Amino acid sequence: MRGQIVKILSNLYFVNCDGIVYECHSRGVFRNKNITPVVGDYCIIDEKEKYILEILTRKNYLIRPLVANIDQGLIVTSLKVPDFSTNLLDKLLLVMEINKIKPIICITKEDLVDDYTKKEVKEIMNYYKKIGYDVFYNYELEKIKEIFKDKITVFTGQTGAGKSSLFNKLDPNLNFDTGEVSLALGRGKHTTRYVELISLFDGKLVDTPGFSNIDLSVYSKEEIKSAFVEFSNYECKYKDCMHTNEGILECAVKKAVQDGEILESRYENYLKFLNCDKTA
Ligand code: ZN
Question: Is the full-model pTM beyond 0.85?
Answer without folding.
Answer: yes
